[in-house]
Amino acid sequence: MNAELFERYGLRMLDGLVVTLELVVISVTLGALLALPIALARTSRSRLLRGLTFGYVGFFRGTPLLAQLFLVYYGGGQFRGALESVGLWWLFRDAFFCCIFTFTLNTAAYQAEILRGAMASVPRGQSEAAWALGLRGPVVLFRVILPQALIVALRPLGNEVILMIKGSAVASIVTVYDIMGVADLAFARSFDLSVYLWAAVLYLILVESLSRLWAVLERRLGTHLAVAGARS
């Protein structure tokens, strides 16, 4: 442990931890809001909706997150005039917002597929029974299908959040000072590899803490959703 280096960059590493948490929490939350409409569109009767969402999900799941970030961060500048005309340049000129935008689109694709698979696992007889009782549309979705689907989706959704925590390290490449960004800065000025060990430890603490919290959430929420699904 280099005490002088730790004194210089220890607090900055904690600042980087906060930035990493902001990136992950905001993007995962926004991605969750997009995931359900995308999942429903993937199973829509409309061939157009199915085709568009199939292409969207296929692109973001089939290409590296780093390539997607470069397309947004560096590609946005190619359309500055058009973006300024519609008032969106503020989003693409800031590296942090570019990361949020890219991470949101990426995790939304993964979460949508998780939800789609979970909803497909709910026996069709459940929705048919709800329709026979006179329930329709959103009521069937939110009171019958989703409570049961979320039980199946909880664990893979937790894995997706963990993957986003680790994947968020690519933000450092576009000058965002998250955990890895601060580690890169410290190494560039000290050439001391121990800074990357600090970064690895912080990521390990984040992932392990989330894993334990998610296990508790899965036990408690899983029981609640199972009861809700049974009552529905």
Give a summary of the structure in a few sentences.
This protein is mainly α.
Describe the model.
It contains ten helices and no strands. The longest helix is centred in the first third of the chain and has 40 residues, at 3-42. It has 232 residues and is an all-alpha fold. It has helices spanning 3-42, 47-62, 65-73, 80-85, 89-92, 95-121, 124-132, 137-167, 179-190, 194-231.
- Kindly state the number of beta strands: 0
Radius of gyration: 21 Å
Q: What class do helices, strands and sheet pairing give? A: mainly alpha
Low-confidence stretches: none
Overall 3D geometry? flat
Mean pLDDT across all residues, rounded?
88
One letter per element, helices H and strands E, the order comes to HHHHHHHHHH
| Proportion of residues in extended strands | under 5%
Q: Specify the number of helices.
A: 10
First-to-last CA distance: 57 Å
Q: Give the helix proportion (percent range).
A: over 70%
The biggest beta sheet reads: none
How do the strands and helices of this protein lay out in sequence?
Elements: H1 3-42, H2 47-62, H3 65-73, H4 80-85, H5 89-92, H6 95-121, H7 124-132, H8 137-167, H9 179-190, H10 194-231
